[in-house]
Write a structure and sequence with these properties.
Blueprint (H helix, E strand, L loop, with lengths): L6 H14 L6 E3 H10 L6 H10 L7 E3 H14 L2 H12 L6 E3 H10 L6 H10 L7 E3 H9 L6
Antiparallel strand pairs: 1-2, 3-4
Helix pairs in contact: 5-8
Length: 153
């Protein structure tokens, strides 16, 4: 797996993996895998996790070793591109292909579809992205903002 992942990625994955390796056996429970993966910036669905487990003949409650976890992370990273998926969704809402959508459209999408945000969460997200409440959102900039990693303080 080392040929597909950088040493920096492997080190980061190891550090997070070790937080859930409570017995120091180089293993974590499959129940913790989705949490670890999301902590590392991937967004697997439950179906994707089940598919990964099926590949390695694992069931919920089994343990997986770090090497298997690296393989799962590589597969997930290869198949997922959150920015591209979100941008495609915005482009479908932009009928006139102007490169922006209204704040009301974004608010409606965020609070009524997928993993719904509350109105308060939506307000916080829009405020942190410096979006004016009565304006338009350039969706390419907005997607870049929401998919960029959080600063490591």
């Amino acid at each position: 797996m080392a040929r597909y992942l950088s040493q920096k990625q492997i080190d980061e994955f190891r550090e997070c993996f070790n937080l859930y390796d409570r017995k120091n056996l180089n293993k974590i429970s499959t129940r913790d895998v989705i949490t670890v993966m999301r902590s590392l910036g991937t967004y697997p669905t439950k179906k994707e996790i089940e598919s990964h487990f099926k590949t390695y003949d694992k069931k919920n409650g089994d343990d997986i070793e770090f090497s298997t976890f690296l393989n799962i992370m590589h597969q997930q990273l290869s198949q997922e591109n959150a920015a591209k998926e979100i941008l495609a969704a915005f482009k479908q809402s932009d009928w006139e292909k102007k490169g922006f959508v209204t704040v009301q459209e974004v608010r409606q999408i965020l609070t009524r579809t997928g993993e719904k945000l509350t109105s308060r969460e939506c307000d916080l997200l829009l405020r942190s992205a410096n979006v004016q409440s009565n304006g338009y959102i350039k969706y390419d900039e907005f997607v870049s903002f929401i998919t960029s990693p959080l600063p490591d303080y």
